[in-house]
Every structure is written in structure tokens, then in C-alpha cells.
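hi support,

uploading two proteins for the ticket. first:
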Amino acid sequence: MKIDSSLPLEYSTEENRLKIFGFWIFLGAEIALFATLFTVYFVLENRTGSGPTGAEIFELTPVLLETFILLTSSFTIGLGVHAMRLGNKKAMMSFYIITLILGLAFLSIEIFEFFTYVSHGATITTSAFLSALMTLLGTHGAHVTFGLFWGIAILIQVAKRGLNDKTANKAFIFSLYWHFLDVVWIFIFSFVYLKGLIS
């Protein structure tokens, strides 16, 4: 397989470029999924029945903390990709590990948040609003959870095989996935939590 050394390692073969292009198509399907979940949420957000509203259960502090953590993880994975392009395996792995730790911290806060909602009687069966909310948040959380396992698998491969065109391609595609999750969270933060708190 011909390697083009003038390109970054993750783009250095035709196969790699096709895999990245294919992953962008996959992200298009993911955008459609989350767009559907957001649409359902916006339709049902005022159908609270006898259950609590968003303003009654949302708390700004944990949501701000989650947002800060996830945005920081987006920055650290960017540093990881930069280190990878410089051929610095140790730095790349370190930044990816930091990213995964931040992802775990985010997930821990989100799980705690779910338990808090349930303790206040806000469950997925309480109202249409809470059903839509928890489906949206749960789907995003499931994606983050999958990302943690995927990231660990990539780190194991890089540790064993080093930085080459294949491992760099996988690590870069993972970074696209992680950035996508951050973008989705910004929409959740802005149009679910902030909107819910001020309405």
C-alpha cells in the first residue's frame, strides 16, 4: 500500500482517506439521530403532566461543570492529535488518557444527576417531557460510554503497535467522534438546560 509522506499519518493512504470519509458519512447518520431526539424533546417539553418541569429539576452548577469538563476533553484530544502528527507517542497517549478520564468524570456527574432526578420523582415514566429528556440525555451518555471503551481499545493498540498509518487513522477517527459528542452536548446545554432554566 502506497504511503504519501507529504500528508499527516492518518491521511497517508487511500484506504485511510476513504475510512475518514466513510466516518463523516456515519456522523451524518448520527446527526439525523440526535436531530430526531431534539425534535421529539421540543415537541414534548411542555407536556409535564403532574410531574416536575425543567425549571424545577435542572441545576446550573452540575451542568456547567459537565460542560467545562467535556469542552476541556475536546481540547485535550486535539492536543493528542497534534502530538500524534508530531510522532510523539507518549504525549499522544497521555492526552488521550486525560481525555478519557475527563469523559469518565462527565459520565459520573450525569449518572449522579439521573439519580437526583429519580429521587425527586422525575422518572422516564413520569411525563412525556421527562421521557423525551431522559431518552436524549441517555442516548448521549451511551455514546460517551461507548467512546470510553473505544478510546481504551485505541490506546492499547497504540501501546502495542506504535504510531503507524493504521493506528493513527483509528485515533484520528476517534477524535472526530469525540468532538461530535462535544458539539451535541453544547446543543443540549443551550437548548435543553439553559432554555429550561429560564422558561
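and the second one:
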Amino acid sequence: MDQWLSVGKLVNTHGIRGEVKIFSQTDFPEERFAPRKKLTLINPETKQQLELEVHSARFHKNMYIVKFKGFEDINQVEKYKGWELKVSKDDLVELEDGEYYQHQIIGCTVVTDEGAILGTITEILVPGANDVWVIQQPKGKQILIPVIDEVVLHVNVKDKVVKVHLMEGLI
């Protein structure tokens, strides 16, 4: 499943004409849910896959209401509740300089500006104002690092290394 990126989850049906409610998990919903875009629906338990084409989509009450080509009524879509919508890693949207995908950050080794190795980024939290990277130290304890310019000095996704400045009181 490493070749897939999550873009959403089919959480429910909407009406009786085959529309579904999608909880978006992408920073690019306008692109991912655009008409004629191809998405792969994957059952998280059985890994069964179904390729779909978006017919139409609209944002409604913090969800996307999506109609897929070839699905005309509720009976055709309700069996897919809980399935995940994914795209291939080959279908990445180009990012601006200084922007990275979460899958590129997770697994990076974190090094201080003084050369000390802190550990590996295992998770990214999104609590509000800024992201927070969870760093697993070799000796077991986790460190939380805010993703702000004063702390994150350099990100090298090619070499999987992040350089940080530990402000006083951070750890």
C-alpha cells in the first residue's frame, strides 16, 4: 500500500441518486475531486480496489458531496461506506519550494544545529496554528517539535534529514 496516498474517506451516502459524502484528507480537494479525475476506492480491511471517475463534486457542511460516473442510485454506493479514496504517488501535485508532503517528512532523521541526533519523525500532529512533529528518540522518549521557522532550519527530503534549532525550554 506504499504507492498510495489518501485523499479522503467515503463516510456515507447522500440522497438517493448515487452521491456520497467524502471526508477530505487532501490539501488539494479542488484538484482531487474535479470532474473526470480518477480515484481508487480501497476497502481498508480486504484491500479490494475499485477505480472510479469523478462526475461532479461540491463542498457542503465540511464534506465533499461526490457523484462518481456510472453510479446512479443509493443501492450502488452504500456498500462502499468506510472505504478509503486514494491516488497513486505518481499523481502528486507539485508543491512550492519549502513545502513537503507528510509522507516525505515521516521517517526523516532530526539533527540539531549543533550536530546532535534527536531521533526520527514518526508522526505529524495538526493541532491548530502550526504542525507539530513527533520525534522518537533512540532511547524511547518522544519529543514534540513545533514546525515554525525559528525551530525548523532546513529540510532535505532527498537525504531524509531535518535540521532544527532547539529553543530554550523546548525539550
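thanks. also noticed: Helices lie at 29-32, 74-77, 102-105.
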